[in-house]
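User: I'll paste a sequence; please echo it back and then give the predicted structure.

Assistant: Echoing your sequence first, then the prediction.
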Amino acid sequence: MTRAQRAALVAAMHNRQGVVYAGSIHVRTLAALARRGLVTLSEGGTAATLTDDGRTAAIAQVTRV
C-alpha cells in the first residue's frame, strides 16, 4: 500500500469511538485496495476494514461518492 492510499483511507474524520468515516474516499480507491487484499468490504459495501500485514488498522464507514 502506498503512503497516499493509506492517508486517503485513514483521513476524513474520527468520531469518539475511533471509527474512521471515509466519505472522502472514492469508491474506486476502495475497490482497488480490495483487489490487492488490503481492504475487506462488508456485504453491501457499506463498511471497509483496512488490513496491514494481517492486522486491522482502521475501520471505515463507506459513503457513496
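The longest strand covers residues 55-61. The radius of gyration is 11 Å.
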